[in-house]
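A quick aside before the break. I want you to see a complete sequence-to-structure record at least once, exactly as it would be stored in a machine-readable document. Don't worry about memorizing anything.
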Amino acid sequence: MTGHAADIARRGLLGLAGSTAVAALAGCSPDPHSVAAQAKAGDQKGYVSGDGAVETVRAVDRAEPVTMSGELLDGTAWDITSTRGTVLVLNVWGSWCPPCVAEAPGLQKAWESVQKKSLPVQFMGIDFREEAARGAAFNQKYGITYPSLSDEAGVLILRLQGKAPTVPTTLVLDPKGRIAARVNGTVDATTLTGLVDDVVAES
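That is the input. The structure line, written in tokens, reads:
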């Protein structure tokens, strides 16, 4: 091989090695949209939203009743045992969560629907990982009329038996306080109303 040809071959190999290194670095670069990257940003956007999958649980397969107590956004004390004998809809949300904002009108519509039907149903939000004042301002802005618990510390969802791995999550509890249905992700009014009607019809 002539000196000129060897030089060309050497430069080709160096270029290939450089391209490979760049590709490797690109492959190892963190995705700015990943949960880890969002969490590191510290802007409260580190969440994974579910795909809206619906899960129903037969009465014979339901776990023990959910136990929970805390304070509403206005500071009023609340205990879940006060809802025994009625169907309870629990919605885990936060004003910092875009899917939660998107589903809020549907939740309010479903709440108004069960009220018009005079069904034995109550709604309760769980405002996750934000100040109570911020959650209250959101509810006022969007006309949400059912109450919400303040869960700024993020501990109340630990009472939900592992059924709220993402925000938003909506649970429907039967009159005994057992989880009868779940929507993992954004829920619409039609789906939620149907789930509620099914659980009400059991009793």
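Two observations worth writing down. The CA atoms of residues 174 and 199 lie 6 Å apart. The radius of gyration is 25 Å. We'll return to this after the break.
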